[in-house]
Amino acid sequence: MACLDVESPSICRGKFKSVLQLCLQHRRSREQLSEQGIMPPLKTPAAFHEKICRLERARTGNFLKHKLRSRPERAELVRMHILQETQVEPSLQATQMKLKRARLADDLNEKIAQRPGPLELVEKNILPVGSKVKEVINGRSCSYPPCQK
């Protein structure tokens, strides 16, 4: 926040004080900073804390190097269906996948629209039904007992 030339220095100082107080109120405590590894704990020497941080960072680096060395090859990931084998540029792979899914959805919707209805399945004896239902489908009338109320 910059003070304007038209403001008096006392008003400007007051604004800076209020901003500073606000920042100090929202500042993290020393315990929080030590828990996050930003500051050393109170009873630990700073040099010891730095050494611990370096050792942890080295251990993490070694772990990551080991994981990178032992990760499977691309061909193995393709074989396990984790990656897809495409000749497309990586920046276009997401677009290609969306297009492929849209095409599959369209094909599936078309097949669903063309599938036979239940009456056709009954006529072709694919769906089993009772004899009375068959008579009604074939056009013969069938007498049903009256419904009781």
Brief descriptors of the model:
149 residues; mainly alpha; 7 helices; elongated; Phosphatase and actin regulator; protein phosphatase inhibitor activity; repeat
Please render the helix and strand layout as text.
Elements: H1 9-25, H2 30-35, H3 46-69, H4 74-79, H5 90-114, H6 118-123, H7 131-138
Tell me what you see in this structure.
Its main location: nucleus. Keywords: Actin-binding, Nucleus, Repeat. This is Phosphatase and actin regulator. It comes from Gouania willdenowi (Blunt-snouted clingfish). Among the domains are: 8-38, no CATH class; 40-69. Helix content is 62%, strand content 0%. The chain has 7 helices and no strands. The chain has helices at residues 9-25, 30-35, 46-69, 74-79, 90-114, 118-123, 131-138. 0% of the residues are buried.
Brief account:
The chain is mainly alpha-helical and 149 residues long. Helices cover 62% and strands 0% of the residues. The chain contains seven helices and no strands.
Strand content: under 5%
Report the structural category: mainly alpha
Unreliable parts: none
Shape, principal axes of CA atoms: elongated
Question: Percentage of helical residues?
Answer: 55-70%
Distance between the termini: 83 Å
GO cellular component, one term: nucleus
Family: Belongs to the phosphatase and actin regulator family.
InterPro entries: Myocardin-like, RPEL_repeat
Subunit structure: Binds PPP1CA and actin.
